[in-house]
Write a structure and sequence with these properties.
61 residues, mainly alpha, elongated
């Protein structure tokens, strides 16, 4: 049964990557409202760190 789930999630991998890219851009844009000279590279690192923490928290539920 796990093989079927693996095949199914592989179908959505690109969509998941697209969604993550969209989230990073979204939060960079939001951060730039408060930080006009935002370093997008550093902001991206912080956003990825926050996303990983959020994933860990949600996974615990």
């Amino acid at each position: 049964m796990a093989d079927l789930e693996q095949v199914e999630i592989n179908r959505y991998r690109r969509e998941l990557e697209h969604d993550v890219r969209h989230l990073v851009k979204k939060y960079c844009r939001i951060m730039s409202w408060e930080v006009p000279e935002l370093n997008e590279s550093e902001a991206g690192k912080l956003i990825f760190m926050a996303l990983r923490q959020a994933l860990d928290e949600v996974e615990k539920e």
